[in-house]
C-alpha cells in the first residue's frame, strides 16, 4: 500500500512563562491509504497536538511547529500557503473532536452545517448540497433525515451529534479522517455505534483514519497499526496484533495490563505507578524511567532511540538495545 | 463520492433550514407572555401608525400659517389647539412624530451597522485593528454624548447648513455617538465566541474568514443586536429632542417633538398654553418608555446570558 501521509521529525513546542513545553518531540510515522492508525497514550502526552500540527491549527503564538516535515501527496503541509491549507482542511483531511456538543454552532441548523463544506469545497449548489446532506445523515445511520436537518444541535443527543460530526467530516470524501478521542465523551453503548459508523464510512470510501484514543478496547477494535506515545515521543509502534501479543516497552505493557478484560475479574485493576512527568522537567533520561518496573542504570542517563525489535515492530527502550548489542 | 440526487426534495424543506427560524418563533411566543412588553409594542405600533397615517386625514396637513387663528385653545375644530402661527398642534404633533421616529430608526440602523461591523472585526482579529477601533471608541466615550452633539449642532448652525440637510446630519451625528457602545458590546461577545470549540470546528472545515464572521458568529450576536437596536431607538429620539429643544437639531418649519417644545419655551406659553408643550412632551415620554419596556422584554427573551433555561 502507498503511504498517504508521512510525518518526519515533527516537533511542536509551546512557550510558557516557565519554559518550553515540548508537546510533540521529534516524531515520525506514516499512514497508508485505507489504513487505520491508532495513537494511544495517557492524557497530556501530545496526541491532540500531533493532530493539530497536521491540520496546521496549532495555537499561535504560544505554540509553534518548530521542525519537521508533513508530506501529503507531493506537498509538505508545513510549507504550503495558508490559503492552500484552508482548501485541504475539511476537503482532503478532516477532523472530529471529543466534544460533539460544543463542536456545532448552536444557532445554525444541522442541515446547514453539513451543507457548508459541500458548497465550499465541492462547489455544490444549495439544492444539491441539501440532497447530499440528507444522504450523509442517512449514511451515518440516523433516520428521519429531513427532520434532523432542520433541527438545532441542542435538540439532538451526544451520540447523534457525534455521528453528525462524522457526516460533516466525511462529506467531501477526505483521504484522511483524524478522530481525536471521538467516543470519550459518550456512553459505552453509544460508543460502539459511533465506532461502527466510523468503520462503515471508511469501508465505503477507502479513506485512512488516524484515531486518537486512550482506550485500548477501541484500539483493539479499530486499529491496523498502533503508535504509543509518551511525553511527546513515540515509545513503541507496530501492527495491532503484534503489539497486543508481544508488547515490548514497559509503558505499553503497563497500559495493556491496566485494561480491564471482560470475564476476568482482577483483585484490583492494575495502574501504572506515578504519573506523566511535567513537560518542563524532562531531562536527558528515558522519560519513563521513574515509573518503570524494569529500569536499569542507563535509563537514568540517556534516552533510548526508537529501533526495530522485531519485524515491523519498533520500540524505544534500553532493554532491547542491549539485547541487540549482546 | 457519488453525484447527489436532487429528486423529490421540496424547496420548503431547504427554506426551513434558514438560520434560527424556529428559535425566532420560540422567542416570539415567549415574548407574548410578557404583558408589559406586549403593551409597549402595541403603543409603539400605534404611534407609528397614527404618525404616518394620521396627517393624511387632517384638513390642516398643508401647515399653512394663519396668524388670525393663533394660540387657540383646544376645541372641536382644533383638538389640541393652535400654535403661535395658527397651525393645528395635533397635525404638527403627528408630522413631528414622523420625523422623530424616522430619525430614531435611521440613526439606530446606521450606528448598529457601523458598530456591528467594527465590533466584529475588532473582536475577531484583535491586534492593531482592534487597538485603533477601540481607542477611537474610547475617545468618543470619554466625552459625554450631549456636549459632542451640541458642538456638532453649533458647528452646523455656524456653517449655515440648509435646513433640509440638517435632518440627515442629525441622524449622522447621532450615529457617530451611538456606534461605540454597540461596537464594544459586539466586540466583547466576539472575544468569547471566537474561542468556542465550534469556531475551531469551523477552522477545521477550511471556512473563509468572511463566512466565519458573518455566517457563524453574527447569528450568535443577533439576539444581543436586536435588544441594543430597540433600546437605541429610544435613546436617539431623546437625543434628537434635546438637540432640537436647544435649537441645534432639526429646524422649524420642519417639526420635531423637540423643537415643538422649544417653540413654547417662555413663561407665558408654559403657564397659559399647556397644549403647546404637553402633547409633544407626552409623546416623547410615552414613546421612549414604551420602547424601553419592549426592549427589556426582548432582552429577557433573547439574551442568552439572562436566559439559561431554554
Ligand atoms: N495551548 C497550550 N499551551 C501550552 N501548553 C500546551 C497547550 N496545549 C497543549 N499543551 C501541552 O502540550 C502537551 C500535549 O497536549 P495534548 O496533545 O493536548 O495531549 P493529549 O495527548 O492528551 O491530547 C500537554 O502536556 C500540554 O501541557
Ligand atoms: Mg487530547
TrEMBL record, chain A:
Transmembrane segments: none annotated. The keyword Transcription regulation does not apply. Residues 5-256 form the ABC transporter domain. It is found in: Cell membrane. Its main location: membrane. The keyword NAD does not apply. GO terms for molecular function: ATP binding. InterPro entries: AAA+_ATPase, ABC_Ni/Peptide_Import, ABC_transporter-like_ATP-bd, ABC_transporter-like_CS, Oligopep_ABC_C, P-loop_NTPase. It is a peripheral membrane protein. Keywords: ATP-binding, Cell membrane, Membrane, Nucleotide-binding, Transport. Belongs to the ABC transporter superfamily. NCBIfam families: oligo_HPY. This is Oligopeptide transport system ATP-binding protein. It comes from Paenibacillus lactis.
Automatic annotation (TrEMBL), chain B:
Residues 97-295 form the ABC transmembrane type-1 domain. Keywords: Cell membrane, Membrane, Transmembrane, Transmembrane helix, Transport. The chain crosses the membrane at residues 36-57, 99-124, 136-155, 167-186, 217-238, 275-295. The keyword Membrane applies. The keyword Zinc does not apply. It holds the Pfam family OppC_N. InterPro entries: BP-dependent_transpt_permease, MetI-like, MetI-like_sf, Oligopeptide_permease_AppC, OppC_N. It is a multi-pass membrane protein. This is Peptide/nickel transport system permease protein. It comes from Paenibacillus lactis.
Amino acid at each position: 500500500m502507498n503511504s498517504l501521509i508521512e510525518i518526519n521529525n515533527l516537533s511542536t513546542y509551546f512557550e510558557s512563562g516557565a519554559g518550553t513545553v515540548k508537546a510533540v518531540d521529534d516524531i515520525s510515522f506514516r499512514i497508508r491509504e485505507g489504513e487505520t492508525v491508532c495513537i494511544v497514550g495517557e492524557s497530556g502526552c501530545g496526541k491532540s497536538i500531533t493532530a493539530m500540527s497536521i491540520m496546521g491549527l496549532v495555537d499561535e503564538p504560544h505554540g509553534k511547529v518548530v521542525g519537521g516535515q508533513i508530506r501529503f501527496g507531493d506537498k509538505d503541509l508545513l510549507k504550503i500557503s495558508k490559503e492552500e491549507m484552508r482548501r485541504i482542511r475539511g476537503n482532503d483531511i478532516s477532523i472530529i473532536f471529543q466534544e460533539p456538543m460544543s463542536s456545532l454552532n448552536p444557532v445554525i441548523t444541522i442541515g446547514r452545517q453539513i451543507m457548508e463544506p459541500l458548497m465550499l469545497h465541492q462547489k455544490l449548489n444549495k439544492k444539491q448540497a441539501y440532497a447530499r446532506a440528507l444522504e450523509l445523515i442517512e449514511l451515518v445511520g440516523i433516520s428521519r433525515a429531513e427532520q434532523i436537518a432542520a433541527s438545532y444541535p441542542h435538540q439532538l443527543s451526544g451520540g447523534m451529534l457525534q455521528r453528525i460530526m462524522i457526516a460533516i467530516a466525511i462529506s467531501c470524501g477526505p483521504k484522511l479522517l483524524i478522530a481525536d478521542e471521538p467516543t470519550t465523551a459518550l456512553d459505552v453503548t453509544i460508543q460502539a455505534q459511533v465506532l461502527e459508523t466510523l468503520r462503515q464510512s471508511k469501508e465505503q470510501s477507502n479513506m485512512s483514519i488516524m484515531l486518537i484514543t486512550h482506550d485500548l478496547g477501541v484500539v483493539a477494535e479499530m486499529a491496523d497499526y498502533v503508535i504509543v506515545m509518551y511525553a511527546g515521543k513515540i515509545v513503541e509502534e507496530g501492527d495491532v496484533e503484534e503489539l497486543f501479543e508481544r508488547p515490548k516497552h514497559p509503558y505499553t505493557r503497563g497500559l495493556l495490563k491496566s485494561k480491564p478484560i471482560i470475564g476476568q475479574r482482577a483483585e484490583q485493576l492494575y495502574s501504572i505507578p506515578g504519573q506523566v512527568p511535567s513537560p518542563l522537567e524532562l531531562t536527558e533520561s528515558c522519560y519513563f524511567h521513574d515509573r518503570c518496573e524494569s529500569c536499569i542504570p542507563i535509563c537514568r542517563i540517556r534516552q533510548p532511540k526508537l529501533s526495530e525489535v522485531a519485524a515491523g515492530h519498533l520500540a524505544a527502550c534500553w532493554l532491547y538495545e542491549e539485547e541487540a548489542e549482546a | 463520492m457519488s453525484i447527489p440526487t436532487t429528486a423529490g426534495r421540496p424547496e420548503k424543506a431547504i427554506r426551513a433550514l434558514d438560520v434560527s427560524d424556529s428559535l425566532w418563533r420560540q422567542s416570539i411566543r415567549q415574548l407574548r407572555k410578557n404583558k408589559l412588553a406586549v403593551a409597549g409594542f402595541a403603543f409603539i405600533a400605534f404611534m407609528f401608525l397614527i404618525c404616518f397615517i394620521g396627517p393624511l386625514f387632517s384638513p390642516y396637513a398643508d401647515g399653512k400659517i394663519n396668524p388670525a387663528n393663533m394660540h387657540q385653545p383646544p376645541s372641536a375644530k382644533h383638538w389640541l389647539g393652535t400654535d403661535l402661527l395658527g397651525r393645528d398642534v395635533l397635525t404638527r404633533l403627528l408630522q413631528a412624530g414622523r420625523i422623530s421616529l424616522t430619525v430614531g430608526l435611521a440613526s439606530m440602523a446606521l450606528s448598529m451597522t457601523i458598530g456591528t461591523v467594527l465590533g466584529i472585526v475588532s473582536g475577531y482579529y484583535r491586534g492593531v485593528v482592534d487597538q485603533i477601533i477601540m481607542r477611537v471608541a474610547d475617545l468618543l466615550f470619554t466625552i459625554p454624548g450631549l456636549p459632542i452633539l451640541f458642538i456638532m449642532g453649533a458647528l452646523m448652525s455656524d456653517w449655515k447648513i440648509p435646513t433640509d440637510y440638517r435632518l440627515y446630519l442629525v441622524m449622522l451625528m447621532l450615529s457617530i455617538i451611538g456606534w461605540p457602545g454597540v461596537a464594544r458590546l459586539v466586540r466583547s461577545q466576539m472575544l468569547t465566541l471566537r474561542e468556542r470549540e465550534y469556531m475551531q470546528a469551523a477552522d477545521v472545515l477550511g471556512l473563509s474568514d468572511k463566512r466565519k464572521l458573518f455566517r457563524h458568529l453574527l447569528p450568535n450576536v443577533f439576539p444581543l443586536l436586536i435588544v441594543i437596536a430597540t433600546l437605541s431607538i429610544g435613546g436617539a429620539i431623546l437625543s434628537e429632542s434635546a438637540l432640537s429643544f436647544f435649537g441645534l437639531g432639526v429646524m422649524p418649519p420642519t417639526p420635531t417633538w423637540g423643537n415643538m417644545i422649544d417653540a413654547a419655551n417662555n413663561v407665558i406659553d408654559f403657564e397659559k398654553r399647556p397644549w403647546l408643550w404637553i402633547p409633544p412632551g407626552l409623546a416623547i415620554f410615552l414613546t421612549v418608555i414604551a420602547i424601553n419596556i419592549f426592549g427589556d422584554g426582548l432582552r429577557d427573551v433573547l439574551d442568552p446570558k439572562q436566559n439559561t433555561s431554554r
